[in-house]
TrEMBL record:
Its EC number is 3.6.4.13. It catalyses: ATP + H2O = ADP + phosphate + H(+). Keywords: ATP-binding, Helicase, Hydrolase, mRNA processing, mRNA splicing, Nucleotide-binding, Nucleus, Spliceosome. This is RNA helicase. GO terms for molecular function: ATP binding; hydrolase activity; RNA binding; RNA helicase activity. InterPro entries: DEAD-box_helicase_OB_fold, DEAD/DEAH_box_helicase_dom, DNA/RNA_helicase_DEAH_CS, HA2_WH, Helicase-assoc_dom, Helicase_ATP-bd, Helicase_C-like, P-loop_NTPase. Residues 135-146 have a biased composition (Basic and acidic residues). It comes from Linum tenue. Signal peptide: none annotated.
Length: 957
DNA sequence: GAGCACTGC
């Protein structure tokens, strides 16, 4: 358990050196001490001891505080919910401090301290807390004395204040140089002036810099660095290490571009209304800290109630090798339990060593004599790095006894007995070898993440275990839902392994302002008041991250050297790898790192040295509606499990703190225990096809842990039937079997298979690859949007539609021999392009295997579109009078996405095929091409009737 | 004229 924080630890020395007692920060921490003080003198002594010297002010405020706190004790004792009361009284106290300062500032002495009327209250509060009566009277007398003292002190400080004020006014009339003097004095009210002085200077500097940079600009400041994380790299560090080495030149250039942007922003901000902004700034900073602290006070009872104690293993064990991992103590027990049970649920927090050690124990115990040990991971990088680590620990070469298998990369051999793979990969293995007879143990790691693949693996493996009594199953999960796994696997025993986790204090802050402003305030609060340690802030997405980054940079500029240096790093998946790598950069001593991250930091990336976490309580979550066939991405509350995971990130290297920007009540009552599993929020057509290919027909009784809705199931079956993958009996057809071979959405597979018939398999294969790498092909930086748009337009020339445009992008890239430079010039993401190339290569192999001829006819665009329609005939939009489109066989009205090249084609195309529907601000079709309605009758006569189509445009048929 | 959390085969 952490000790009660001393004032010294709370108020950094730096802060002490320039802040006077009246600063709200010091006021708040004084309030904290006064919680446990027996007299105003004790408070004063303690403060002096720590170097806070506020002169007479200190005494008067200490007395004031003491009385207020005593009174709040009383209130707390009365109330049924003591914590609530304590919070309330602290808020009152905070308000009072503010009043007090105002009173002093306005030199209005006749304001009577209504709160002081609680002198009698102080006595009852003390008896409530068990102090004997004699002392009680003493307190009472003291309180009355204190009241007199306060009056006297206030009068004195008023006079002093007026004196200072006069002086300041004079100084204000002086030149800026005179301000230096004020700076030295470090008085509270001169703070504004000091900042303004600093600010003015900054503006001057920034303006100069700006004109310089404009004069020296070569116009070519933009550069988009190469971003694809090559698959050959083993772990994160190596991955990033290589990434930053790879393209240093571009990186520096990008940096200077950023600086340049930053300067521009500053100039704009400063020259417009700097005076007002500076004032606001001062207020905002004080005020937000104020509110934050109102509930953040480290009072003891508050701590006990809301502090989550996470398991703790002494630090001295770290780094002592395998035997010092927490799991080691459980080795024998584990092996015993595995011997006795077929299925075992293992709960182990991060750092327990389960992923690396368990397979090794099993190997040592001889399980590999009967067959391989397979361990699944939800992520590629994890599978690779864990395998590499285990290979080192076992002293073998990676790919020999220990290997990994992920898409595009198989690093295993005949010898391999311990195999790490992604969960999707295991699913593929199932289709070629449904009984997995060469394997003796299957370990499903990170099961709590509940990816679609792990969910399916659960059912398959559960079934398999019944058939094969020699097969052992290990399901490893995080704490919260272990019982659910156990129940699912017929009450399998649960073994808990402690993690290597330090305690994390969890503090709540009910947001008052916008959540982003709260995040900024909380960050600064930690930075100014807390001991060293990096901060991790969880936000929803790129946009929020960039906003917060900008806000923080502005604030830091203003506080300058007063505050320790704050190094800010954004972190999200779409960020170029070079910039992601910066989170690992060493920082100067005394500086503090702030990482503004999305969910990527919750699971995928572990960052050392984080001691503070700020949790917005939000994330973006994708969802899919089978009824409208529409996907969307929405900001949602995270689950309790996620909240715990996020908090846990603060306790990896030492005891930490987590500030949650939501109320405890919200956590308790609003948040779900676990996030809705992915399988219930996504389109499951490919899941259904995969299962069909595995010979599973009875979906009604298929043992899903959480079954997808009937609606989405029916929708999926209907679509597969329409695509010709299933016959009228619901059995897989020849085409269906072929479709299941491709790692693509079934509509894309269908289109690919049809392409041979239209003589354009090469082209359609490229389009399929491009479409399967999301929407991350084109890149449009904010400041160069027009240029990016123009670059994109070149591929859309002739209004050929988005599909053909993608084909042209790929082919142009291929002509430049896959050049990254070309990507930069054309505002295209090299990372996505390389991924598309990998996908394309894989498709090509599969096509060859399937005996599909790779014919090519790049000039027959109609043929290409017909092939596309062979897979996407259910995705047809018809122009309505209003300019919106209606989905054939659907009811929604949608529009062409403004980013589509077809959006600006006039007149609007009447019939279009689209890749997908998305709900953002409106309902949009993404990736659109014009088609002819008569093709529909040619391609999908089983799906559309002539009559049906004639209703819309009779003449076109 | 809008905006893409994160994975995976």
């Amino acid at each position: 358990m952490p000790n009660e924080p001393s004032v010294k630890t709370l108020v950094s020395e730096k802060l002490m050196s320039f802040l006077r007692f009246s600063h709200p920060l010091v006021v708040q921490y004084t309030a904290a001490i006064s919680q446990n003080a027996n007299s105003p003198e004790e408070i004063v002594d303690k403060l002096l001891e720590y170097g806070v010297d506020g002169g007479d002010d200190i005494r008067s405020l200490a007395a004031d505080l003491f009385l207020s706190v005593s009174r709040s004790d009383k209130a707390a004792a009365k109330g049924s919910n003591s914590r609530r009361h304590e919070e309330k009284s602290l808020a009152d106290l905070a308000r009072k401090q503010r009043q007090y300062r105002l009173i002093v500032a306005e030199s209005d002495g006749d304001d009577d301290d209504d709160h002081d009327s609680g002198a009698g209250g102080a006595s009852s509060s003390k008896s409530a807390s068990g102090v004997v009566g004699g002392e009680d009277d003493k307190k009472k007398r003291k309180a009355t004395d204190d009241r007199e003292v306060i009056r006297a002190l206030r009068k004195k400080s008023r006079q002093e204040y007026l004196k200072k004020r006069e002086k300041e006014k004079l100084q204000q009339l002086d030149d800026w140089i005179a301000e230096e003097k004020v700076l030295l004095e470090g008085l509270e009210l001169s703070e504004v002036e000091r900042l303004e002085y600093k600010h003015n200077k900054e503006i001057l500097e920034a303006t100069n810099k700006f004109s310089e940079s404009v004069a020296g600009s070569d116009g070519g400041e933009y550069r988009f660095p190469e971003a694809y994380d090559g698959d050959g790299l083993i772990d994160q560090r190596r991955r990033f290490g290589a990434a930053s080495k790879r393209d240093t030149g571009g990186f520096e250039k990008l940096e200077s571009w950023e600086d340049h942007q930053l300067q521009k922003a500053t100039v704009k901000f400063g020259s417009k209304n700097r005076k007002r902004e500076a004032d606001d700034y001062q207020l905002l900073f004080d005020d937000s800290l104020y509110k934050l602290e109102g509930q953040l006070l480290p009072g003891k009872s508050l701590d006990e109630e809301i502090t989550q104690k996470l398991d703790y293993v002494s630090k001295k064990h770290i780094g002592d090798g395998r035997k010092c991992l927490p799991i080691y103590q459980f080795k024998d027990k584990l092996l015993q339990m595995i011997r006795d049970n077929q299925v075992l649920v293992i709960v182990g927090e991060t750092g327990s060593g389960k992923t690396t050690q368990l397979p090794q124990y099993l190997h040592e115990a001889g399980y590999t004599k009967q067959g391989k040990i397979i361990c699944t991971q939800p992520r590629r990088v994890a599978a690779m790095s864990v395998a590499a680590r285990v290979a080192v620990e076992m002293g073998v070469k990676l790919g020999h006894e220990v290997g990994f298998k992920i898409r595009f990369e198989d690093c295993t051999s005949e010898k391999t007995v311990v195999e790490y793979m992604t969960d999707g990969m295991l699913l593929r293995e199932f289709s070629s070898q449904p009984d997995l007879k060469n394997c003796s143990v299957i370990m499903v790691d990170e099961a709590h993440e509940r990816t679609v693949s792990t969910d399916i693996i659960f059912s398959l493996v559960k079934d398999l275990a019944r058939q094969r009594s020699d097969l052992k199953l290990l399901i490893s999960s995080a704490t919260l839902d272990a019982e659910k796994f156990s129940d699912y696997f017929d009450c399998a025993p649960i073994l808990e392994i402690p993690g290597r986790q330090y305690p994390v204090d969890i503090l709540y802050k009910q947001p008052v302002d916008e959540i982003l402003e709260e995040a900024v305030a909380a960050t600064l609060h930690i930075h100014v008041t807390q001991q060293p340690g990096d901060i991790l802030v969880f936000l929803t997405g790129q946009e929020d991250i960039e906003t917060v980054e900008e806000m923080l940079r502005e604030k830091v500029k203003h506080y300058g050297s007063k505050m320790g240096e704050l190094i800010i790093h954004p972190l999200f998946a779409n960020l170029p790898t070079e910039l992601q790598a910066r989170i690992f950069d060493p920082i100067p001593e005394k500086a503090r790192k702030v990482i503004l991250a999305t969910n990527i930091a919750e699971t995928s990336l572990t960052i050392e040295g984080i001691r503070y976490v700020i949790d917005s309580g939000l994330c973006k979550l994708s969802s899919y509606s089978p009824r409208t066939d529409m996907g969307s991405l929405q900001v949602t509350d995270i689950s309790k499990a996620s909240a715990m995971q996020r908090a846990g990130r603060a306790g990896r290297t030492g005891p930490g703190k987590c500030i949650r920007l939501y109320a405890p009540d919200h956590f308790q009552n609003q948040m779900e225990d676990n996030c809705v599993p992915e399988i219930q929020r996504s389109d499951i057509v490919s899941v259904v096809l995969t299962l069909k290919a595995l010979g599973i027909n009875d979906f009604k009784n298929f043992d899903f842990m959480d079954p997808p809705s009937d609606e989405s199931m029916i929708k999926a079956l209907e679509l597969l039937y329409a695509l010709g993958a299933l016959n009228s009996k619901g059995d897989l057809t020849r085409i269906g079997k072929l479709m299941a071979e491709f790692p693509l959405d079934p509509k894309l597979s269908r289109m690919l298979i049809a392409a041979e018939k239209y003589g354009c398999a090469e082209e359609v294969m490229t389009i399929a690859a491009m479409l399967s790498v999301d929407n991350a092909i084109f890149y449009s930086p904010k400041n160069l949007q027009a240029m990016a748009e123009n670059a994109k337009k070149r591929f859309e020339d002739g209004d050929v539609g988005d599909h053909i445009a993608l084909l042209r992008v790929y082919n142009s890239w291929k002509e430049t021999d896959f050049s990254s430079g070309w990507c930069r010039e054309n505002f295209i993401q090299a990372r996505s392009m390389k991924r598309a190339r990998d996908v394309r290569d894989q498709l090509m192999n599969l096509m060859e295997k399937a005996g599909i001829e790779l014919n090519s006819n790049p000039n027959d665009l109609d043929a290409i579109k017909k092939a596309i329609m062979s897979g996407f005939f259910p995705h047809i939009g018809i122009l309505q009078g209003s300019g919106s489109y209606r989905i054939l066989k659907g009811l929604q009205n949608v529009q062409i996405h403004p980013k589509s090249g077809m959006a600006r084609v006039q007149p609007n195309p009447r019939w279009v095929v689209f890749h997908e529907l998305v709900l953002t601000r409106k309902e949009y079709m993404r990736h659109v091409s014009e088609v002819k309605p008569k093709w529909l009758l040619e391609i999908a006569p089983h799906y559309y009737e002539r009559k049906e189509l004639e209703k819309f445009f009779p003449r076109q048929l």
